[in-house]
Each structure stands twice: as structure tokens, then as C-alpha cells.
Amino acid sequence: MKKLIFTLLVFTITMTVNAQTIFGKWENRDEETGKVDSVIEVYEKSGKAFAKIVEITNPERKDAVCDKCEGDKKNKPILGMDILSGLQKDGSEWSGGEILDPKKGKIYDCFIELKGKNKLKVRGFLGVALFGRTVYWHRKS
């Protein structure tokens, strides 16, 4: 009986900790339709947060390339592409990195912040956070 209680306790703690992290898979939703257009995986490497596109829901866009990107991402497949890089934890948010908008080929300064266990605020901006755009990613269930 003690083993069962201990196992349930460990499972509950693990689920609670995992639900309160930025790491994992997130759904990006089209701003006009509200439908999921891609799934993004946020992962940690060397203490920093990164993210890549792991799924594109529109069958016609699965083979899309970043034709508007510059540099080493020019004409590379969007599926599998890192779009978020180098964010470091700073209090309740992760900041100091960049985010790529593959549809526009533009790179923006970025910070992200967990808003509840299933919602991630993603803010991209140029220079000052006041001048930018915020989107919300929703944890993939």
C-alpha cells in the first residue's frame, strides 16, 4: 500500500512540475480562424530555451520553405526549423533571445512567459517591447 501511495505521489508531483514549464509541445493558432496551424516544441539546450516547428497542419504547407528568410535559413524547410533561440530565464519570463516569423522571414527580439499551465505568452518586438506583437501558444494535449 505504501508503494502505491508513493508511486501516486511521485506521479502527481511529476505532472504538476511538467504542467508548469515552458518546455513541451505548443499549438500555434491562426489569428483569423483560431485553428491550429502548427505545433511548436520548446526545448532546453545549455540552460537556454529554443523552439522548433514539429508539425504543420495544412497539408499544402507541409513542404513549405522559408523563401523570405535570409542567411542560412533561406529556402530551407519550415518544418523542423528552429524559430526561437537563446532565451534565458529571468524571473517568471524567458528573455534575451530571438524569434523568427517564417511567413515574413523576419527576426524579432523575444520574450516568453507562462500564463497558467496551458498558455504561453510569446512577445516579438523590434528594439523595445512596447513596439511588437503578442501571440499565445496553447499546450498540446
Automatic annotation (TrEMBL):
Instruction: Give the signal peptide, or none.
Output: 1-19
Stretches assigned to the DUF2147 domain: 24-139
Determine if Cell division is one of this entry's keywords: no
Q: Does the keyword Iron apply?
A: no
Return the Gene3D superfamilies for the record. Answer: 2.40.128.520
Keyword list (alphabetical) reads: Signal
Which InterPro entries would you find in this protein's record? DUF2147
Write the protein's name.
Answer: Uncharacterized protein DUF2147
